[in-house]
Design goal:
Length: 131
């Protein structure tokens, strides 16, 4: 497995573990109960899980779908920023908005990496195994 794939797998699994906890704690503290914000948070979680499954299974036929999904998730995170911007003047709100902005940049970068030649080699299965 190439180093880039190991890195994105580690980051994705970390985000999949921490993202629901972040929303549970900070969303409750800030009393963010807007149905659209909660929907966007869970949709982002499910989409990131789907992209990670595509990476682990080397589902080459779903790679294009995964890249489009990542772009859509980045747009949803932008919506999340707009929905939670009212809470930016508290510590918890600033953390939530900052994490959403970082997620936008990460998702766009991940989409770009999946379009790279290194990822194409990984998904084609023609790479030398690394330990």
């Amino acid at each position: 497995m190439p180093a880039g794939i190991k890195l994105i797998s580690t980051i994705n699994v970390t985000l999949l573990v921490l993202y629901p906890l972040l929303w549970a704690v900070l969303g409750a503290e800030l009393r963010i109960n807007h149905p659209l914000a909660i929907y966007v948070a869970w949709l982002t979680f499910a989409g990131l899980f789907a992209v990670q499954a595509i990476v682990w299974w080397r589902a080459r036929r779903l790679l294009g779908f995964g890249r489009v999904l990542l772009y859509g998730l980045a747009i949803l995170q932008g919506l999340q920023v707009m929905l939670t911007i009212k809470a930016v003047f508290s510590y918890a709100g600033a953390g939530l908005v900052t994490s959403a902005l970082l997620a936008v940049f990460y998702l766009i970068g991940l989409r770009g990496y999946l379009a790279s030649p290194a990822a194409a080699v990984y998904f084609s299965g023609n790479h030398a195994p690394h330990s």
